[in-house]
Structure formats: structure tokens, C-alpha cells
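Action item from last week, closing it out:
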Amino acid sequence: MLDKATICKAIRSELNEKGKLIQLAFDDLNSAITDDSKSTAGDKHETSRAMVHLEQEKLSKQLIQNKHLQQALQKIDPDKKSNKVQFGSLVSTDRGVYFFSIGLGKITVDGYDIFCLTPITPLGQMLFDCKKGDSIEFNGVLEILEVQ
């Protein structure tokens, strides 16, 4: 199985890439406003500017969310070992591998599918504090094979 440091690095890379794409979209909107300001006036112009501002607000929220996810990821010590599932744990089960970190969903690292979830998700709540050999009932029985 992969180590947590490799997974954290992959997540960080994905968050950085998403942040760059959001920033590019934001910059494009700023250019659109500048270009639009030089063109026509009137109701159509004002409607267009309002729509661009709404999109900018949406992108700003996404940038803030991305920053929060990066900060949460930094709180994980990849070298920390635990025998119970907690924030920062890498959990191997008979139905997949879960990384208790941020709610990013499925990522693929070195050919392995890793499900990044938070401890507040329904599955996260059920797995939290479990240890190797425990089983839970979640869409069938899920057995914990290893906790790092």
C-alpha cells in the first residue's frame, strides 16, 4: 500500500492545480470586465457586468475553499502512526482504501484508487475510532484490514 506522504503530495498537487485553474478563470473574468467597459453602454452592458461579478464571487469562494482544504491537509503528519482510525489515517478495507483527510473524493495515486473523505461523512463517522479487524455495516459488511 502507498504511504501517507505520497498521498498527501498527490492531494497537494491536485489542490494546487485546481487553484491555478480557478485563478485563471478569475483573471479571464477580470479581462472580460476591462474589455467590456471599453465597449457598449446600456442595460445589456450592465447585465453583462452583473453576471461577471456574480461569477467572480463564485470563483472567489472556490479559491477560499481551496485554501482551507490546503490548510487542513497541512495539519496531517504523514509519519504519525495510529492503531485507530482518526484524522490523517490511511485505512485499507476489503472494499477500498480510505484516507481520512479532506473531502476530495476518489484520487488515483501510482495506480491505486484512494478515497479521500472527512471524518464527518456518514462512512467517516462509522469508521472513526475503529481498528484493524473491526467490521462495520455500510452497504454491506466492510472489514478493516489495516490502519496507518
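Closing note: The chain has a mean pLDDT of 89.
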